[in-house]
Design goal:
The protein is mainly alpha-helical and 304 residues long. Helices cover 63% and strands 3% of the residues. The protein has 16 helices and four strands. The strands form two sheets. A two-stranded parallel sheet has the order 1-4. The protein has a two-stranded parallel sheet with strand order 2-3. It is globular, with a radius of gyration of 19 Å.
């Protein structure tokens, strides 16, 4: 999406270039931390199996599926690793597998979202076009997510469109995960991933979609400050809902080439320089996102 020339009143081209600099080391550190959390979720449930640790493990895994999806997204932009082939290889075979995200197909689709954000041609607009919705409607959506209806629907869609080129990495990931857990004497732990994928991740992903484009001032204009939102999460929300700085979605739309590990600094500089002044585009936590996403039930013209 083309940026309004006024952005250059707030950032110099040299500063933009500095923010856009990629680092293999920082990308590996980001991926490594998410892998540690992924392994820790299984270890928690396997070493101390009880209802509390199992629920916590499932929630952690839901957040890690989100994280793998975010990193795949960054690889699709070529904005994660500094080495180009690493974005393609890791995004497809290592990161895209647990995310259930075919890198090339996702890249073709997602770049159109950036190209057409704020216009009727945005391929993602249908996901959020009705927000704010009534509390009853939002409740129904999350009930579908937490009862597995959304997750099973999406899985059936994946299976129906399965190809080795697109979905092979996901199949390899599941074979390795199931084999590793079986070798460790806990084949039952493999079900934790599917519990997270089918019953937790859909709700996390929906909340992310709402925060990015569902609670914005005007999604039908080109100014990213009006059609895209950023959320400032607390530490718990960052762990379970918005890993890898995905919450800085407005900054990402302003400069998609900026890697995720530089987005917080970009956000701070734009705040300091008044770029967001007089624009209600920053939500403070996901409770604020949900508040902005709802309207009174009596205002509901049709059930959603």
């Amino acid at each position: 999406m083309k940026q309004a020339p006024e952005i250059y009143n707030y950032l110099s081209r040299a500063e933009i270039a500095a923010f856009s600099e990629k680092s293999d080391l920082r990308a590996w550190a980001t991926l490594g931390w998410q892998l540690v959390l992924f392994a820790a979720a299984f270890a928690l449930a396997m070493l101390w199996p009880n209802p509390l640790t199992i629920v916590l493990a499932i929630l952690l895994l839901g957040g890690r599926i989100q994280a793998f999806g975010v990193m795949t997204h960054d690889c699709a932009h070529g904005a994660f690793f500094a080495t180009p082939w690493l974005n393609n290889f890791m995004g497809k075979w290592i990161i895209g597998g647990p995310a259930h995200t075919p890198l090339e197909a996702y890249r073709r689709y997602h770049l159109n979202h950036h190209r057409y954000a704020g216009t009727p041609d945005d391929p993602d607009k249908w996901m959020v076009k009705n927000y704010p919705v009534t509390k009853s409607s939002l409740k129904r959506k999350f009930v579908r997510d937490f009862t597995g209806q959304t997750g099973i629907r999406d899985l059936m869609r994946e299976l129906k469109g399965f190809t080795w080129e697109g979905n092979g990495p996901t199949l390899v990931f599941h074979l390795l995960l199931a084999g590793s857990l079986t070798a460790l004497g806990a084949p039952w732990a493999y079900l934790l991933f599917w519990a997270a994928r089918l019953f937790v991740y859909p709700a996390i992903h929906r909340l992310r979609q709402i925060s990015e484009h569902g609670v914005v001032p005007d999604r039908d204009v080109l100014d990213a400050r009006l059609n895209t939102g950023t959320t400032i999460p607390n530490m718990v929300e960052r762990l379970f809902i918005s890993p890898c700085n995905v919450n800085y979605h407005l900054e990402h739309h302003i400069f998609a080439a900026v890697p995720p590990y530089r987005l917080p600094a970009l956000h701070r500089m734009l705040v300091e320089r008044g770029y967001y002044k007089e624009h209600d585009c920053i939500a403070h936590g996901f409770a604020d996102v949900l508040r902005r996403a709802t309207r009174p039930d009596e205002a509901d013209p049709v059930a959603a």
